[in-house]
Every structure is written in C-alpha cells, then in structure tokens.
C-alpha cells in the first residue's frame, strides 16, 4: 500500500511503500520535549521504502539535539516536521510523522506513548536499525523558488 504525506505547505513531501494491503499502523508519541512541542507521532515499518522530495532545500532545515543520532527535517516555511532520519553504519533509516499523512483514516493508526530517556546510544541505534524504515531516498532541489502567498 502506498501512503503519502507532506508538510503543511507541501515543500517536504514523501511517499511510503508500506508492505501490506490494509495498513495497521502502530505509531509512537515520543515524550521528548522536541516531539511534544512539534507534535511528533512517528511510525515506521521494516521493509518499507520511503521516498522524500524537498522542493526547495533552502526553505528546509535539519535539527539535531541530545545524542546527535537523529536528524529532524523541519520545513522552514510552515514549521512542520514530516520525518526524522538516522544514519547507522553508513545506512540511512527514517520514521515519518503520522500527523503529516494524506488520505489515511486515523482509525488505522494506533498511537502509544513512548519515552526513550536514559537509553544509551548503542541501544538506541540498535533499536532503530531493527524497527525504522530501512530503505530511504531523499531528493532535494535547490533551484525551485516559491511565489509569495497572496501575490
């Protein structure tokens, strides 16, 4: 099943080839201060393929904090955080924010609270390598400009 999503303004969009016909999506509402403040509710599925398109990389930013093992991809235009990536052993992994889904019934998403405070870096990276999306492709375009809204 193909799931799509994007930030509010559409600068960062993604498609996720979810390896199931009818998705039963487990999501984690992270308890860290960044995710609480930005509405981060993350999902991933091993064996899925994530394709990300950033229309104008000049209007997106990357935020890293804490253990410096994850990169939060933030749209500078609208402030949404559609996905997070983590490079582990020269391979890119990711999770997507269910709050950026397009056309997916919320009834197919099961949200549970999570808190990874106190988890050591090795355990964190091992958990991600087992559970995060393991086929991630990001395409960024620096040549696209946007017209200002309202003329």
Q: What are the salient characteristics of this protein?
A:
mainly beta, 5-stranded mixed beta sheet
Could you explain how this protein is built, in words?
The protein is mainly beta. The protein is built from two helices and twelve strands, in the order βββαββββββββαβ. It has helices spanning 33-38, 121-131, and strands spanning 2-6, 12-17, 25-30, 41-43, 49-54, 60-63, 71-75, 83-88, 91-97, 101-102, 109-114, 135-140. The chain has a seven-stranded mixed beta sheet, with helices on one face. A five-stranded mixed beta sheet has the order 10-1-2-5-12, with no helix packed on it. The chain is globular, with a radius of gyration of 15 Å. The protein starts with a strand and ends in an 11-residue tail after the last strand.
């Amino acid at each position: 099943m193909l799931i799509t999503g994007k930030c509010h303004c559409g600068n960062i969009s993604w498609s996720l080839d979810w390896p199931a016909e009818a998705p039963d999506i487990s999501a984690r509402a992270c308890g860290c201060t960044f995710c609480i403040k930005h509405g981060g509710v993350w999902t991933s599925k091993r064996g899925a393929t994530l394709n990300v398109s950033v229309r104008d990389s000049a209007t997106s930013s990357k935020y890293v904090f804490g253990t410096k093992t994850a990169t939060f991809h933030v749209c500078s235009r609208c402030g949404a955080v559609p996905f997070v990536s983590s490079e582990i052993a020269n391979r890119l992994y990711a999770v997507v924010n269910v709050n950026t889904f397009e056309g997916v019934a919320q009834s197919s998403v099961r949200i549970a609270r999570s808190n990874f405070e106190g988890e050591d870096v090795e355990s964190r990276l091992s958990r991600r390598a087992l559970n995060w999306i393991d086929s991630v492709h990001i395409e960024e375009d620096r040549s696209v400009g946007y017209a200002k809204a309202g003329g």
